[in-house]
């Protein structure tokens, strides 16, 4: 399944800046950054639950915001892209 992870971590303190770096690293390990605090991740149900648990352990729910969206429409209708960024086609051939 394709999921969209968005977050807003308070960076007013040093602890907040550390949380921001940790949240970004977790997201980078599971998907691709499409904007500064937005990631697309292609995961199965078990990976989704693990990602959710890991991110919830990193954020401070009294100061930060985390949103996880499951994208369920057919692939060609899910995402419209405009501009120079082109995302990785997870289902296409792998070229190195």
Provide a descriptive summary of the structure in words.
There is one protein chain. With 96 residues, this protein is α+β, with helices and mostly antiparallel strands. It starts with a strand and ends in an 18-residue tail after the last helix. The longest helix is centred in the N-terminal third of the chain and has 17 residues, at 14-30. It has a single domain, classed as Alpha-Beta Plaits (2-Layer Sandwich). The protein is built from 3 helices and 4 strands, in the order βαββαβα. It has helices at 14-30, 45-58, 75-78; strands at residues 2-8, 32-35, 38-42, 65-71. α1 runs antiparallel to α2. It is globular and about 40 Å long.
Number of helices: 3
End-to-end Cα distance, whole Å, is: 24 Å
Q: What would the average pLDDT be, to the nearest integer?
A: 86
Largest sheet, spatial ordering of strands = 2-3-1-4
Contiguous uncertain segments of 5+ residues: none
Tell me roughly what share of residues is in helical segments.
25-40%
* Proportion in β-strands: 15-25%
> According to CATH, what is the topology?
Alpha-Beta Plaits
Number of strands: 4
What's the assembly state of these chains? single chain
Assign the CATH architecture. Answer: 2-Layer Sandwich
What top-tier CATH class fits best?
Alpha Beta
Radius of gyration, rounded? 14 Å
Q: Report on the biggest sheet.
A: 4 strands, antiparallel
The shape, in one word, is globular
Number of domains: 1
Element string (H = helix, E = strand): EHEEHEH
Q: Which structural class do you get from the secondary structure elements?
A: alpha+beta
